[in-house]
Amino acid sequence: MDVISNSAARYVRLREEEMSLDEFLVLCQRDPMVYEGAAHRMLAAIGEPEMTDTRNDPHLSRLFANKVIRRYPAFAEFYGMEDAIEQVVSFFRHAAQGLEERKQILYLLGPVGGGKSSIAERLKYLIQKVPFYALKGSPVNESPLGLFDAVEDGPVLEEQFGIPRRCLNHVLSPWAVKRLEEYGGDIRQFRVVKRYPSISRQVGVAKTEPGDENNQDISSLVGKVDIRKLENFAQDDTDAYSYSGGLCLANQGLLEFVEMFKAPIKVLHPLLTATQEGNYKGTEGFGAIPFDGIVLAHSNESEWKAFRNNRNNEAFLDRVYIVKVPYCLRVSEEVRIYEKLIRESSLASAVCAPGTLKMMAQFAALTRLKEPENSSIFSKMQVYDGESLKDTDPRAKSYQEYRDYAGVDEGMSGISTRFAFKILSKVFNYDSTEVAANPVHLMYVLEQQIEREQFPAELETRYTSYIKEYLSPHYAEFIGKEIQTAYLESYSEYGQNIFDRYVTYADYWIQDSEYRDTDTGEVFDRNALNAELEKVEKPAGIANAKDFRNEIVNFVLRARANNQGKNPSWTSYEKLRLVIEKKMFSNTEELLPVISFNAKASAEDARKHEDFVTRMEAKGYTPKQVRLLCEWYLRVRKSS
Q: How far apart (Å, rounded) are the C-alpha atoms in residues 256 and 246?
């Protein structure tokens, strides 16, 4: 199907369907979703979770204590937000069960750029997936069930159509009361429409924002009189009223209130009655207007604290269901957020050197974490990402210990993802000749930006120290390994020679025999063999040389049997591969002829250099980045 046909088919699928009241009741009998409220429909739109048993993943098991966690495909790209999403879904689950949450405002509380608006946008998108049923012509999308009396009609509706009495607590809108009068009480004259919520048409979904404190009134929520209609109707006539407020438009759907606590308290009062009682008063003297929807609000912590500390707001505080949305504290998940943002921009095809996004994520996470006691904050960051440090940092604590000490407010301060992405944008455009990003430019841009932001002196010092003490040394180690492996691949025959020679020397040493080199005729006794073996072992810090040599020789003898008597590749045995690498790089000078960009002494060196650059490009670097990063690495190695 082509895209135009698809668009036309979607329009047909989402078109309103009209039916009689009798047909609506028969539908209720067949499908409970027809009469259920907005919370039920939101749950249906979110869908069933995928259950993840964290015992099967070492990283997740450390973070979630081997529990089975729920992950919702509808929120698949909300990385590192499992807790917040689970709380949001729990709110809808409890509201759908008729518990206290159905009378409460869902309130997302978090720092700027932490993802509150993204959750709100996703919920508004999701609620459009499931249709609702309303009286045709009703300006407030009211449920047809409001036509029935819960006490008198409830038992009959439950018996004949399976509609629970809890679903009959709807008041009739003033518009429907006037129509009922016109129809002489014959409710069969009402027609029912099946409608899909729509953000663009403001059907069942609305958004309201705080206006000017001096002139904002409740009409942004409840609507107001349409003065053009006063020629034909009295001011208190329902047909003279413009049902343009957020609560009117969002009935049976979702109302998003942005930065709610920036609005004057008088403006918020209609929200209390709408959520608690299921109806609210308009600005005129007619009856109450029904509301059976979800109110979703969000704001930053500073507004919430100011509102909470005002004793006059206590009634409101009890009616708010708070979900904290902190910054992401897991480096690997933060990296996925950046990858998603880059994917959605024109930078998607730009070269991003390995380690760039990870470094940005590490810096962001460090600024958001609370400094631990008797432990490195870098180690804490690694533990929060599910890493095990028992072999590398004995002072590192467990994930739960760090969390308990940090308290509930961790992740509510630090740099935002928005700030981080602006930094990355500058890094990608730092070099005027190519759009590409690398960690060396990232560190430079970060330092510049920290200075420009004019943070408090203590904070500026702390942020700068993260770059110098943690990011730069760890990156030097990372890029060193990248350069070394590319160099190794260029020198594979050199590595194989060391391997073959080591295995031969070790074999003769174990047998306590002399070895004669067939090429040079040189004879090595046991002491000479030992000295040669130690040249390889010492840079790697091998503690028990005897056991190590036996282990290697046994491995090679077994491997030869399956390899027509030939030695296996020098990279085939991890332990010895690491030992040989450390031997090859125990001296930086060995790298220089190949990785430096100076004039080469021989054609052979030039060939190997080009080979090295090609291998670095294959790893994801541009030629310009290879030069920059190699020069930076050599400079750092020399100064350390």
A: 8
Model confidence pLDDT, tens digit, residues 34-75? 999 999 999 999 999 999 888 888 888 888 888 888 999 999
Task: Give 327-362 pLDDT, tens digit per residue.
Answer: 999 999 999 999 999 999 999 999 999 999 999 999
* Residue type, position 17, single letter: E
pLDDT of residue 590: 61
pTM: 0.82
**Amino acid sitting at position 160:** Q
CA nearest neighbour of 280 among 206, 174, 209, 208: 174
Q: What does each C-alpha distance from 444 to 134, 240, 271, 475 come to in angstroms?
A: 59, 63, 49, 13
* pLDDT tens sequence across 517-541: 877 778 888 888 888 888 888 877 7
Look up residue 600 and give its DSSP letter.
P
Rounded Cα distance between 640 and 638, Å, is: 6
Nearest C-alpha neighbor of 417 from the set 350, 343, 326: 326
587 pLDDT tier (thresholds 50, 70, 90): low
What is the secondary structure of 497-545 as a DSSP string? HHHHHHHHHHHHHHHT--EE-TTT--EE-HHHHHHHHHHHHHHHT-S-H
Give Cα separations from 228 to 215, 234, 235, 287 (angstroms). Answer: 22, 11, 11, 22
Identify the H or E element spanning 360: helix 356-368
Half-sphere CA count of 29, side-chain side, radius 13 A: 11
Task: Write the CA distances from 603 to 487, 525, 594, 606, 623, integer angstroms.
Answer: 17, 38, 11, 5, 20
